Amino acid sequence: MFSKTCEYAIRALIYIAQKSKDGSRIGIKDIASGIDSPEYFIAKILQELSRKDFVQSAKGPNGGFYMDETNLTLSVADIVREMDGDKLFSGCGLGLKECSEECPCPIHNDFKGIRQEIQDMLERFKINMFVEDLDLKMTFLKR
């Protein structure tokens, strides 16, 4: 459903939120290991997310990535839009360029409801909502 880049971005932001809640900062190696991602790939993703203020970073010996209060209220939908665009929430279920109410594809009417349910769910889930479940080991980012 999401691109690999988007998957890693979501997992990394959740992981950083969990690990930095005590004020600490998390390095690339720990993040890559914690979410089972290639280090070079997650570094590139986090650099972009940092530039766009989805995550904070600090350089130096005590540097790394961390989340502030604003970052913690980001929804999964916000991350998806940033990484993959709006296609999941507005695109055709068959991938057609021209699909609308006036010129629907064969699955248009059923898919628009599913698409809306996915968008609503991803809007509802905020980064900070995942931290407690991870701490309690009720959910996982890596198995």
Please, could you describe this protein's structure?
The chain has two domains: 1-74 and 126-143, Orthogonal Bundle (Arc Repressor Mutant, subunit A); 78-125, no CATH class. It is built from eight helices and two strands. It has helices at 4-19, 28-35, 39-51, 69-72, 76-84, 87-90, 108-124, 128-135; strands at 56-58, 64-66. It has a two-stranded antiparallel ribbon with strand order 1-2. A hairpin with a 5-residue loop joins strand 1 and strand 2 (64-66). Helix 1 packs antiparallel against helix 5 (76-84). The chain is elongated and about 60 Å long. InterPro entries: Tscrpt_reg_Rrf2 (IPR000944), WH-like_DNA-bd_sf (IPR036388), WH_DNA-bd_sf (IPR036390). It comes from Chryseobacterium oryctis. This is Rrf2 family transcriptional regulator.
Short description:
It comes from Chryseobacterium oryctis. By secondary structure, this protein is mainly alpha-helical.
